[in-house]
Amino acid sequence: MSSVPIANPGEDLGRGAQARLALVNAAVEVFGESGLEAATTREIAQRARQNIAAIAYYFGGKEGLYRAVAEHIVQVILARIGPLMDEAEGFLEETKPAPTQCLAYLKKLLELSIATNQSMVPLTGIIVREQTHPTRAFSILYQGCLERLQRLGASLIRAYLGNGAAEHECIVRFHAMLGEALAFRFARETILRRAGWSEVGDKEETIIRSVVTEHAELVLRGLKRNSRRNS
Amino acid sequence: MSSVPIANPGEDLGRGAQARLALVNAAVEVFGESGLEAATTREIAQRARQNIAAIAYYFGGKEGLYRAVAEHIVQVILARIGPLMDEAEGFLEETKPAPTQCLAYLKKLLELSIATNQSMVPLTGIIVREQTHPTRAFSILYQGCLERLQRLGASLIRAYLGNGAAEHECIVRFHAMLGEALAFRFARETILRRAGWSEVGDKEETIIRSVVTEHAELVLRGLKRNSRRNS
DNA sequence: GTCTATAGTCGGATAGAC
DNA sequence: GTCTATCCGACTATAGAC
Q1: Is the CB atom of residue B52 positioned under 7 angstroms from any atom of strand C?
Q2: Within chain B, how many helices (H) and strands (E) appear?
Q3: Contacts of B130 in chain A (CB under 8 A)
Q4: How does pLDDT run across B142-158, given as a tens digit for each residue?
Q5: In angstroms, rounded to a whole number, what is the distance separating the alpha carbons of residues B10 and A16?
Q6: A223 CB-contact burial (10 Å; exposed 0-12 / middle 13-18 / buried 19+)
Q7: What is the pLDDT at residue B14?
Q8: Nucleotide nearest to A40 (CA to C1')
Q9: For A193, which of B142, B172, B188 is closest by C-beta distance?
Q10: A60 touches strand D (CB under 7 A)
Q11: What are phi and psi of B105, to 5 degrees?
């Protein structure tokens, strides 16, 4: 697992580390736009202002670079939601987690998952491809962060409902709720055209956030109400 | 708009039409797996048991074939949800559409959008690519069916809420709800691994259907309840 | 209408100079 | 460690035979 350091402006990296970093950043863009097969090492090297041979030298080839990109994506996602996941996981360790707090963590998790920034577009492209046509890189993404996120989300729902719901039911429910958040990245062009937006900026993301979290809250409250009625 | 006929086993097609059909069907698979750039006309011709030159002859080249594939996808989707959209659109013309019927149509629409069949995987691949990195083919998909589906869904939500909600709000809400349904196609691999499913078959789709429609109902009922309380 | 043969382009990888 | 030059394979498109 040759982890590639994230950009860290203050730090003094050796020439080698700088070259690796530039290549990975360029590769995220190019792989995101074109996919593993269609992307060309020439394009990546050019954008990174590095020599073509550097890819073979540092990563062993195109595939190795692609794996390094997957590891980089995990780091980016963990930098974004890792601290919240740590906190929420700790909270769930408590003997009796408060339902309102479960809901709050769930909403926070969904909000951070929306991530419609322009800078996320290349990452989204890669992740979507790996979801629909997984390669060996999918395991890096899944074991690196996706599984943990899914597990935490399902556990929060389960704890909110008082552990009355089956685990597999909560897994499906969280997957669906996360789908609401991701719809604005995965089906970006449709919402842009239909809503008449030219981009998904801060203003638009605020609207999305309030809708997604409101939906999640309405679903969970409704489920709890129904379960009370049936008991 | 050179529309390509959908497979129709009983009908007698000329050799030319048969060749076109075989090429489009093969192209859906290959473009779905690899994308426009990475897909090769050799692979497509081979799977279709047609000569490579036939692609240039019938479609003018790789790009023309890709456009034909987009038109084919529109036909497949319309064959699936077109009749329901016709009916629901007619229903909305009524002077005072019943909210319960709005909800019923919305749930039906979401159910049909789940479509996790193995045969939908290539279509999903193409649609997802076009959403995140649209080419000229996106307009074929959007104007052919996506816009109409989105418009209808948002209108159903609006009618259910008694036209009290703003249109753009309903657009975002429907996009989010549709995201719940599509999450199981767009993020297929994650749910397979987490739920321990080997495929998304009939049994799994039944679970997904009940969760997605239940969520939609809970959201809409909750919204209506809240709007009553605030008035 | 259908197919073969080929022209012209571009890709990834690597040998070997510095 | 870094880079240039080059090899070899694979691609699309087309000319022209049948």
Answers
A1: yes
A2: 11, 0
A3: 189
A4: 999 999 999 999 999 99
A5: 64
A6: buried
A7: 76
A8: C11
A9: B142
A10: no
A11: -65, -40
Give the nearest partner residue to A195 out of B172, B207, B219, using CB atoms. B172
Query: What is the set of domains in chain A, with CATH numbers?
Result: 15-230 (1.10.357.10)
CA distance B113 to B180: 10
Q: How far is CA A12 from the centre of its chain?
A: 29
pLDDT in tens, A101-158: 999 999 999 999 999 998 999 999 999 999 999 999 999 999 999 999 999 999 999 9
Binned at pLDDT 50, 70 and 90, residue A1 comes out as: very low
Q: Are the CB atoms for B72 and B29 separated by under 8 Å? A: no
Answer whether B142 sits within 8 Å of A34, measured CB to CB.
Answer: no
Residues of A in contact with B189 (CB under 8 A): 130-132, 134, 138, 142
A33 touches strand C (CB under 7 A): no
Helices A15-38 and A121-132: angle between axes, nearest 10 degrees = 50
Residue A84 to residue A62: CA distance in whole angstroms: 34
- When pLDDT is cut at 50, 70 and 90, the band that residue B15 belongs to is confident
Contact yes or no for A183 and B168 at CB 8 A: no
- pLDDT higher than 80, residue B180: yes
pLDDT digits (tens, 9 = 90+) for A153-175: 999 999 999 988 999 999 999 99
CB B114 within 8 Å of CB B184: yes
Q: What is the pTM of this model?
A: 0.95
Question: Considering chain B, what is the average pLDDT of its residues?
Answer: 94
